[in-house]
Design a protein that fits this description.
The chain is an alpha/beta fold. It has helices spanning 20-31, 56-59, 82-88, 101-114, 128-131, 137-142, 147-150, 153-159, 176-187, 201-209, 232-235, 238-247, 249-262, 268-286, 295-315, and strands spanning 10-13, 36-37, 75-78, 93-98, 192-195. β2, α2 (56-59) and β3 form a beta-alpha-beta unit.
Length: 316
């Protein structure tokens, strides 16, 4: 097995909503790291990037420069771009996974609707980035203040800090090729690039690491409060579905590049379509399930949310 230690950690550059939570647990179990670093850098920050009033415990997970990352890390696993981690740990092994872009984006929007005012209470002004997802999918996809999270997020994550990338504006089509090239160039520097849709992705990663990882599944079980449960059929009207595809257009090209290597014998168009269809069925089933939150939790979150809304109305 590869050796990992201070200054030379294993780095998992985790794109949001791409098999990350369960994989992090598997890596911890297999590697038994002594210093684990999890958090965010600024690569996907949009217009809600004021972290001055974020609670200290949360603020400590935000790394605004490579130098802010601990030098003695043995495992780094977070929404931290390869640029940041490769600058800080030039000798480290890096791994990442990509996922069907439309599925990733839908997963992110649905997850945001499972988050309540109580959940985001520590994030101060930056909590507005979560609240944007409480509106319709169409509005979410057009909200410029969350552009890095809804507009070709995978390419942005790898290409950052490319000068064409802006926090509060969408990528124009004339920029597609340049940004894709930058993302693919960065991708070539990563030791292991996996594909969530590859049934063998854990076996492949285990072989690359030289150690067995516990089998992992996408950890997407979330309870969406009943008032926040969308009708996906209505949300995914023809116009919104077209916009969803447009917001994923460069990411799909990058996904196809990875798929050609990860599953070379597969019909990648069929895999992509199948992933979207499977996800929509899974989300429909999940949104019909009972609220899995404990009764006391539901009461606390409800009371807190009503208090926040009352304060807002009084301040207007």
């Amino acid at each position: 097995m590869r050796e990992y230690g201070p200054g030379n950690p294993l780095v998992f550059n985790h794109i949001p909503k791409t098999a990350g939570t369960s994989l992090r647990a598997a890596l911890r179990q297999a590697l038994q790291p002594t210093v684990v670093v999890e958090g965010f850098d600024g690569s996907l920050f949009g217009g809600y990037d004021d972290i001055s009033d974020v609670a200290p415990a949360m603020r400590d997970t935000v790394f605004l420069s490579p130098e802010a990352l601990p030098a003695d890390a043995t495992l780094v696993a977070g929404h931290i771009s390869p640029y940041t981690t490769q600058t800080r740990y030039p000798g480290a092994d890096h791994i990442t996974f990509v996922r069907s872009p439309q599925v990733r984006l839908l997963s992110q929007w649905i997850h945001s609707r499972s988050v309540t005012e109580f959940n985001v209470r520590h994030w101060g002004a930056a909590a507005e980035a979560f609240r944007v997802g409480w509106g319709s999918l169409a509005d979410y996809l057009q909200h410029e203040n969350v552009a890095p999270n809804v507009d070709n997020t995978i390419v942005r994550f790898f290409a950052w800090p490319h000068p064409l990338l802006k926090k509060t504006s969408f990528i124009t089509e004339d920029q597609d090729d340049e940004l894709l090239a930058a993302a693919l160039e960065r991708l070539e520097t990563i030791g292991f690039v996996g594909l969530v849709e590859n049934p063998q992705f854990i076996d492949d990663l285990s072989a690359w690491l030289g150690t067995d990882l516990a089998d992992t599944r996408l950890n997407e079980r979330a309870t969406v409060p009943k008032a926040m449960r969308p009708d996906l059929a209505l949300e995914l009207s023809d116009g919104t579905r077209e916009l969803l595809d447009h917001r994923c257009r460069i990411d799909v090209r990058l996904w196809e590049h990875v798929a050609a290597n990860a599953i070379p014998d597969a019909d990648t168009d069929a895999v992509l379509r199948g992933a979207i269809d499977k996800a929509l069925r899974r989300y429909d089933e999940m949104l019909q399930e009972p609220d899995h939150r404990k009764p006391l939790r539901r009461v606390v979150e409800g009371m807190y949310g009503r208090a926040v809304n009352l304060r807002r109305r009084r301040s207007r």
